[in-house]
Write a structure and sequence with these properties.
heterodimer; A: alpha/beta; 6-stranded mixed sheet; 24% strand; B: alpha/beta; 10 helices; 8 strands
Chain lengths: 266, 371
């Protein structure tokens, strides 16, 4: 009996060791990319300003430049492969591309096959005010007019706030730009708007608004195959460095628009 | 030796069973579902309908919750799919109505009319996959009689509860025929057999032909056939005698609902062109049921609109149909809720999330229908 137990114990230990060694040696994702000197990014260029095509057919946008910068920091070239939005994850799984870089949000239900990098841009909802207003906090708003885009998550949240805080007026507009313009014209004190719309309006019309705080988070992430942890770790390291040296914010300002916050003294 | 005595093992096993039993007892009880007394749908706009997706919903409380929310939204009609493949797993075998019963009993209890969509083919009625790969929409003519038997059995089973059935779905798309080129003459023959079987089981049943998908695919395409052409070919085959009403799908894509119809464009008012063909072939007396409709607000889909536009277009479309189309009896919005995320643009057609959170469009429809 004790001999049988010893054999079983050795077998289990052997299997664990084999699987551990196997998992370590099977992740050649970063090695493969370095040896072929290229990262293949998959994207759907129908989402300006993150990825789009010029009339001449050239791919441009925030994600294109980000992909080139990440590849540069890893020491390889970047190539971009156009894939329809609904086919992106299939292309990744089939190995047609190494990574997806297409303003994608984390989908927990895909985590059995995909792994998400750290967020490189937060497209969540922000509380926005005019430059002259005092600092505002979403949870402490009272006696305030809040402008939102009609029928969006922002309206749902604002209506919820309205039920629990006194003096909240919610004004829903057809577009995010209209909602922001009511803050510019002082018709409303604040707006709850996604950061892409906020930055875009600042860039296009030069209006000066300030982001008080992020109310929801919607980070865009780079997506790798679940087992390609070495590659994803290298991408994450590049993103952390880019966040620290300001490269990510410069990209956001260039492609989406500027963002003023209280810490900038705006 | 004492260490491995049988007594010790018995004690260990008893202990393990006790733990398992305790864990089982500690697990939360299943929700108690009681059908309850019959309800009535209160609505000022009885034209509002919705296509539910209860086919793959396995938990009874979710079926009940869905239909309760449909009633509270003010929609007196649902379209629901009842797959033959789920009900008759063996040739000549018994029909298993257990899941269909759940859906229909709960719908009846909520005061909702069910338009039952019948389709899909059990494995035994499809080609051997070793010889020919197909999908479960593949139906050879040799099995038309088997399908007609299913239609007859369904109509008989739900006599007094279900008054309208649709034979097949989007018969002008290859996808709905297991990727076989759509054939209006073949569909007309299936419709004829199904109609006779349904009327044999219940002469009062309303048989809907269609439901045609809006598409511009030319007649020689392998992917689909223009819905206007397909309907004309059905009439040429004499299908008019085998449907009491026409089911159609009316999507708006990125166009507002009042956009004028044109044979070259897919928009909401394309339905008028199909109705013109009905008039041309002497079917003015037959009603039309829009069994799929709506707009999508996916942020990344080229055929989508903004969430606010989706709400406004949907309400405008319902008002337009009510005012201008007396021949349209119901407009079913696709789709009420998916049991699980579809992980694509399709999620943005839903009125309610898989966890039953109502979207703004649900609340707007509710406001629209309430007295």
């Amino acid at each position: 009996m004790s001999r049988l137990r010893s054999i079983i114990n050795y077998l289990i230990a052997g299997m664990l060791l084999t699987s551990l060694l196997g998992s370590c040696s099977s992740d050649r994702s970063l090695q493969d990319i370095r040896s072929r000197k290229e990262i293949k990014f998959g994207l759907d260029p129908s989402f300006p300003p993150f990825e789009m095509l010029t009339p001449e057919g050239e791919l441009i946008g925030f994600d294109i430049e980000l992909g080139q910068m990440i590849a540069g920091r890893i020491g390889v070239d970047a190539s971009f492969h156009v894939i329809g939005f609904d086919g992106l994850y299939d292309a990744l799984e089939l190995g047609q591309v190494d990574l997806l870089l297409s303003a994608l949000v984390v989908e927990p239900s895909r985590m059995d096959q995909a792994a998400y990098g750290i967020g490189y841009y937060d497209a969540g909802l922000a509380l926005v005010s005019g430059l002259s207003s005092d600092k505002l906090e979403w949870d402490r708003l009272k006696n305030t007019c809040v402008a939102v885009e009609y029928a969006t998550e922002a309206e749902v949240l604002a209506r919820r706030l309205q039920r629990r805080s006194e003096g909240i007026t919610v004004v829903a507009h057809t577009t995010p730009e209209q909602a922001l313009n009511t803050v510019v014209s002082l018709e409303c004190d604040t707006a709850l708007i996604d950061t892409v719309s906020l930055r875009s309006l600042s860039k296009e019309s030069g209006v000066e608004l300030r982001m008080e705080e992020m109310v929801t988070a919607e980070p865009f992430s780079i997506v790798a195959r679940r087992n390609d942890q070495a590659l994803l770790t290298a991408v994450n390291s590049a993103l952390v460095a880019m966040r620290e040296d300001g490269a990510l914010e410069r990209l956001a300002t260039e492609w989406i628009g500027p963002l003023k916050t209280h810490s900038q003294g705006g | 030796m004492e260490k491995h005595s049988p007594l010790r093992w018995i004690i260990r096993l008893s202990f393990a069973f006790m733990i398992a039993f305790l864990l089982f007892r500690l697990s939360p009880p299943r929700p108690l579902v009681i059908i309850g007394s019959p309800k009535t749908v209160l609505t000022t706009h009885p034209i509002v309908g919705v296509h539910t997706r209860l086919t793959d919903e396995v938990e009874e409380w979710k079926i009940q919750k869905t239909l309760q929310m449909v009633r509270e939204m003010g929609a007196p009609t649902i379209v629901e799919f009842f797959p033959w493949a789920y009900v008759q797993s063996e040739k000549g075998g018994e029909f298993d109505w257990s899941h269909s019963d759940l859906v229909i009993d709960h719908a009846v209890s909520q005061g909702i009319d069910v338009i039952a969509r019948l389709g899909t083919v059990p494995a035994w009625a499809r080609p051997d996959p070793e010889i020919q790969a197909t999908t479960w929409n593949w139906l050879d003519e040799e099995h038309f009689d088997d399908f007609a038997l299913y239609v007859s059995a369904f109509v008989e089973q739900y006599q007094g509860k279900v008054n309208k059935i649709i034979i097949w779905n989007e018969p002008n798309l290859a996808f709905e025929w297991g990727m076989e080129k759509p054939d209006p003459f073949k569909y007309s023959r299936l419709l004829a057999k199904s109609y006779q079987a349904a009327k044999g089981a219940n002469p009062k049943i309303t048989v809907l032909g269609g439901a045609l998908a809006p598409t511009l695919e030319p007649e020689d395409s392998n992917a689909g056939m223009n819905d206007l052409v397909f309907l004309e070919r059905m009439y040429e085959e004499g299908a008019s005698a085998y449907f009491d009403a026409l089911a159609v799908h009316a999507y708006g894509w990125a166009f507002p609902p009042k956009e004028p119809p044109s044979a070259e464009v897919i928009n909401f008012r394309r339905v008028e062109l199909l109705h013109d063909i009905m008039l041309q072939y002497g079917d003015a007396h037959k009603p039309v049921y829009i069994t799929e409709s709506g707009w999508n607000d996916h942020p990344r889909w080229s055929k989508a609109v903004r969430p606010g536009q989706r709400v406004q277009y949907t309400l405008d479309a319902l008002a337009y149909a009510e005012t201008h189309w007396p021949w349209v009896k119901s407009v079913a919005i696709w789709a009420f809720r998916f049991p699980a995320p579809q992980r694509s643009y399709a999620d943005y057609f839903a009125l309610v999330t898989p966890d039953f959170s109502p979207k703004m469009i649900y609340q707007s429809l509710q406001e629209y229908t309430q007295p």
